[in-house]
Design goal:
The structure is a homotetramer. By secondary structure, the first copy, chain A, is α+β, with helices and mostly antiparallel strands. Chain A is built from 7 helices and 19 strands.
Chain lengths: 361, 361, 361, 361
């Protein structure tokens, strides 16, 4: 199923090397001004070829909105949109027609569908995430009005880690460098590592951190649709994602409950939806019992190194024979910088969907 | 929404201190022999009071199957079931009526629903997971027939970590000790740590690892419903879960793509659903492009320390006043041992659901 | 799938001759007083054995609420409930073990599931509708507060038809007779017909009409989930239902558009959600473009004669042999009177679900 | 929600007077040859301007397939498609900007969304059904391979009724006349009536009948998703539909159960999925207990007269004032002929979805 969400929904289609990619955004509230510049800017942040760190592939990635907007505002009807492919070099992939690239979806798709779409990975290509960025940008148009901000950044590349938490940095600086790390010095080291890896024809993974601020209390459902379960599912559906954690996550396992519990601070008067108490800490990551508590929601997403290498690899062809593979074309040595807006987009859709489910919009 | 799954579905109800918990299993294939002993055994593994490590609360947790079974076999109709609460000490919770316990769902539920169900956490209690274990056990009845096994174990408690991977241990030994760690020596150290923490009235978290073996190729969907995104959502919906990773996950970030890619081994003849090639490694964790590749699927789930402490804590009451909280009743110092069957149950439901979606059952 | 609804949902389980029937109501708003007397009264209206017109089977049909209610009010958590079977005469069905009853679900269930649950139809029995009446009664608890009423009545039995529309009768009189027709004289003729048919060991069908009053403007979705499509699906899912129509439906096909269009009446001031104009007529049946317009929503549901006859019928057994079937046990000659509360219940769940989807509750 | 279906799904977007309409078909099996000529032919049957009976509006309605197809075959990935609007006369609608047309969706959309999309009805226009026809045509590509045929025809226009049942006519003749009635003489009378009504600037409704042949046993679910409930919902979601009935429906209410029951015919050997017994009659309409029994599935759909009249009507404007409305532009006097392929398309999608749910495809 290529649909994401419950009552705010994105349905996507499209492949890496066909006509293009696109989708349908369903459940967009009516009367929202459609800031096309903002939407395009989000796409530009995901676009290949934006810096020496990313692939030299240039894709313009212009979004065309086909429906659901009249006189510059949403109508409440489904928003169809298209982003055409261009600058395709399908011939770059001709040598892959009968191969299965290691750690790609080539083999599993072939097994599931009996089809080998060798043209840049077809549907399994990260080009599909273009549609997610568009869907997320529409969601953000609504969230912005409600004072909710979502900011992701590259927190780790290989073994270069940004120390501390999001609170230690000015996240407005994230886009001030190509690697999208809010600390210039760490960004430089990450950048150096990526260039080094790229020079070897190899690839490297890392971690993106994200924080959602201004989120109202009460999002998420108690049982199977805990807010963090929805966020986790959303993030893990991004290409190359291998892990998700929020709050303390996998870290600090030596800390006791008495050290991790977030203590409430007494406040002046009856507690109600309009008078939330404050907390001394936020180890919970803004979610308790699956429901947002008004604190910052923060989480981390692990990404593996891109599977496409610009060096020779052993693999097998469709006949089971050993073959040597050497990718042609233009590929990222590290997806992290371009995945930052994708993480934000997925988070935005989860939050808006849950605001709608909670009857807040 | 209290329903899990797409076409194999579990819907649950019930609270910690009401009549009991239960649910409806929908989409169970017809004609499956219902091994009640097996189902009860899974429940017993989750049950409180099974060892000195867990709460001294004794709950019998007998499952009553109300429908969907005739002459010992499933009929293809929904399986309603009940597990009655007993041995309730609601008075243990009377002192909580107007309090919000730190890092519990008390405050967020109150904000979302305007209700303070102080009796043992009400719906937010991990008692709800009884129903998940029953649902998972029914799923396992089908998976067993297909040669699919699912085995979870406690891999970390606090800073005591079981080294290596699942392949280094005999997972048949997992239940040979109270902590459900397949290595006796590590289990002993985990057990000692839990007893120490318990003695302090404190709690401790950890990590459960799980491996799915014998899983067919082709489970999962390309885009939003990647198999690991579904597994991640399932695991993160378990009480106290803070993180999920599969394959290499958050670890080994210094490894390059050339070190992480799983190289295919040439085989004898055309590759097809019946002739899958083998791999030199399994860094992918059995899932490529969101679809199972026939290799072992392995993942890890992080759990925080239980929020209920048997020591005094500061908190606030409904009027915003500072109060001292000291839990009464019987509580776990570490949920890991009892969460092992829950992790297995959730995994089983995900796998069966996806086999049905893929038309394999 | 045994779940009905989008975000107000009912999941049901249970068979005619097992432990009982029950379900889970999910999405019930918190803080609603649970009027158990009202809920039980709705069940009593559906109950067999309430008059000489219906089966002489006596079922007490006491509903037990298992969860989701505290101190007499809903908590916003799922409401599990049970209605035990009693007074079962399974031996009445022993002669059916190897037979397929004509125009029952016996053969199709056998083909789909490979199971022959001969005990009173098993899951296909109309006993399953007990759970719908409970679900509907909970929905009505909310709708009553909003001033929305739902009233169904028997409008036709065989060729005895209640002339005119719902507006011509006092629907408070519906339950003043056994057949649930608001006109005493027509009710008498319907009743006579049913008794006559019953005397012959035969059965008869008819039509139930229903009107929803006080429904807010704006329920329903433009495209596939038009309000009447949802109502139609709900009604057609009731056992023995063969047709659904709303507004002018199949009737008056000789009328032109100029005769059917509902003309708006000018009003004093800007039109807005708070100032709906009135209409000269309501041929639309309260729904335009799939969305409620605030007028009365009225529709009709056709029911076929019950398939179980108390006379001898030809049929075949599992071996393909010709056999004679004569039903034993106690059966209705006409389901209409007992189906009235089921129609109301399904309508109530559709309306509440759509109010939630529209963010009105 | 603008998505139809469970695991074979169509999501649509687009308005009458914007860029165009389109959609995403999800769950299309891989490896199906895409017969573009067939798909286009279905669209041509729905297209305006095909005969003097329909609007003189000419729309080319060329479908562009954007994804999910490679080398002429489906890949199992979502099929995005577009049908551009052309020949738009938006100025035809300028006089409607502040009006609410009687018995249109104008007022209800305005109330629900706060938006008045006056351009030809916007999303509520039947132009949206273009996407349904495309989705249905893709479904038919699969059903054809399985020997399943779906044939609808105009059975009634105003008071001109085609006597008898589908079995009395050669449905291959349906498209031999403009009105799509398989009997030439009745077609002529229907056609005359439509032309007469059109001459008056008025409109007329009618009934479309449909028969599904070759459908396997076992489609549909027992409870809420009975096959006919799904078909009913699908049909009632078509613009202007007012009623749905299958089998005996609303008719022949004077017949007793003994006259309506479909008697099974003894057969030679054990009954199994491969050896279905035959029936003496098919009053059930091919569905028993909500599940297909292998007999022909037949149903009828009632359509009201088109609301747009080419004569003067009274209505109100946005300020509540009385105004006179006279539609400009080109409009159908009777939608039945063009609705025939829409009914077929919706039926095809329901059948394929249920075959997938039943694991048959």
């Amino acid at each position: 199923m290529n649909t994401f969400g419950n009552i705010f929904r994105l349905t996507t289609f499209g492949e890496s090397h066909g006509f293009g990619v696109g989708g349908v955004i369903d459940g967009m509230p009516a009367g929202v001004a459609v800031d096309m510049e903002f939407i395009q800017k989000q796409l530009d942040r995901r676009r290949p070829g934006q810096s020496r760190l990313t692939t030299s592939r240039r894709e313009d990635d212009r979004v065309e909105v086909l429906s659901g907007v009249m006189d510059g505002c949403t109508t409440g009807q489904p928003v169809g949109f298209l982003v055409r492919n261009n600058n395709q070099h399908s011939q770059d992939y001709d040598n892959l027609r009968d191969l299965f690239r290691p750690s790609h979806a080539d083999l599993t798709y072939y097994m599931k569908y009996g089809i080998r779409d060798h043209r840049g990975g077809g549907r399994s290509s990260a080009r599909e995430t273009v549609s997610r960025v568009v869907g997320g940008a529409f969601a953000m148009l609504v969230l912005r009005q409600k004072g909710i901000s979502i900011r992701a950044y590259t927190q780790q590349v290989g073994d270069v880690v940004l120390a501390g938490t999001y609170a230690d940095y000015d996240l407005e600086q994230t886009d001030s460098n190509d690697v999208r790390c809010p600390d210039a010095e760490t960004a430089r080291r990450m950048s150096d590592l990526i260039m080094e890896v790229k020079g070897e024809g190899d690839t490297i993974g890392g971690v993106i951190a994200c924080v959602i601020q201004g989120c109202p209390v009460g999002l998420g459902e108690p049982c199977f649709r805990k807010l963090h379960a929805q966020l986790g599912s959303a993030m893990l559906s991004i290409n190359a994602a291998k892990g998700f954690e929020y709050g303390q996550g996998f870290g600090n396992m030596n800390l006791r409950g008495s050290q991790q519990n977030d203590i409430l601070i007494p406040c002046d008067g009856e507690i109600s939806r309009n008078r939330m108490p404050e907390f001394k800490t936020n180890n919970s990551g803004g979610i308790q019992g699956g429901i947002s508590n008004g604190q910052d929601i923060y989480f981390r997403v692990a990404f593996k190194p891109v599977a496409t290498l610009l060096m020779e690899q052993d693999t097998v062809d469709i006949h089971g024979n050993a073959v040597k593979l050497r990718a042609r074309g233009r590929h990222d040595a590290c997806v992290l910088p371009r995945a930052v807006p994708i993480v934000e987009a997925m988070a935005a859709m989860v939050i808006l969907d849950n605001m709608k489910l909670a009857g807040m919009i």
